[in-house]
Amino acid sequence: MSSSVSTASSLFAGPDVTLVHDFNIHERVPVVLDQSTASYSTWRQYFSLVFREYLLHGHVDGTVDSSLMVNDEEWMILDTTIIRWFYLTISKDLFHTVEDDDDAYAVWTKLNGLFTDNKLQRQVLLHGEFYGWQQLDSSTDDFCMRLKKLADELRDLGETAGDELLISTLTAGLNEDFGNVASNLTLIPEPTFAKVVAYLKLEERRMKMVRTRATHTALTTGTHRGPVPPQPLMRNATWHGF
User: Fold this and answer.
1) Which residue of 17, 144, 196, 226 has the fewest C-beta atoms within 10 A of its own C-beta?
2) From CA 196, how far away is CA 184, in angstroms rounded?
3) What is the C-alpha separation between 173 and 171, in angstroms, rounded?
4) pLDDT for the residue numbered 1
5) Which of these, 83, 85, 86, lies nearest to 23 by C-alpha position?
6) Residue 170: what pLDDT?
7) CA distance 8 to 6
8) How far is the C-alpha of 145 from the C-alpha of 141, rounded, in Å?
9) DSSP letter string, the chain
10) How many CB atoms lie under 10 A from the CB of residue 24?
């Protein structure tokens, strides 16, 4: 048993426990994982960065058998710390779903599975929302951000929505205020989704300025004209014949 533990320990080159045990996970993962919001891709990406930065990937990728590490005090402390991070960054409903798992790998696997299982059904739902997403009265920023989140969710299921598809879907969903602007998107050199979003934000800002200026001009013109003076009453005239 000791040789197995020694071998497993030698494969794991983890960080010093004191480096990660007490840091604020909310500063590194500033999002709460929730099944009712499009938060999974962002949550997973932030945690992936933490695992890479602090060499913790062995706790969640299955390359190290945690059952062989029960006598490794530092490993167990780090594994428990990671589980605590998960619990602090997920919704209450998800917490009750995974709270009985005994190691970080099991918790990580179950949480990911909740968002990637039932792949076909999720793809059908996401396709409908992605291709039918309309701006309506929302701001350009909110509209584009939601479209990007839907694309990220599709990517999590193995379906990549590239810049060309994102731009096409975005253009089709713009409200009527951007009717003339949409035709100018083809003039952007080497267009990317990020470039198009930046352009639309500038146009939205310009249109707001135009509307504000028009409103100000109308109010100023009305003030300069002043009130219309009342017309004098006409007295009844008496006609004298000749």
Assistant:
1) 226
2) 10
3) 5
4) 37
5) 85
6) 94
7) 6
8) 6
9) -HHHHHHHHHH-----HHHHSSS-HHHH--S-B-TTTT-HHHHHHHHHHHHHHTT-GGGTSSSS-GGGGTT-HHHHHHHHHHHHHHHHTB-HHHHHHHTT--SHHHHHHHHHHHHHSSHHHHHHHHHHHHHT---TTS-HHHHHHHHHHHHHHHHHTT----HHHHHHHHHHH--GGGHHHHHHGGGSSS--HHHHHHHHHHHHHHHHHHHHHHHHHHHHHHHHH-PPPPPPPPPPPPP---
10) 8
Contact 58, 2 (CB under 8 A): no
pLDDT at 8: 44
Q: What's the gap between Cα 39 and its chain centre?
A: 6
User: Is the sign of the CA dihedral 154, 156, 159, 162 positive or negative?
Assistant: positive
Q: Other CB atoms closer than 10 Å to residue 130's CB: what's the count? A: 22
Contact 34, 153 (CB under 8 A): no
Distances (CA, A) of 232 to 227, 228, 229, 235, 238: 15, 12, 9, 9, 18
pLDDT for the residue numbered 217: 78
Task: Please list the rounded mean pLDDT of every run of 10 residues in the chain (242 residues).
Answer: 39 68 91 86 93 93 90 92 95 87 91 86 89 93 92 84 93 89 85 94 91 79 60 49 40
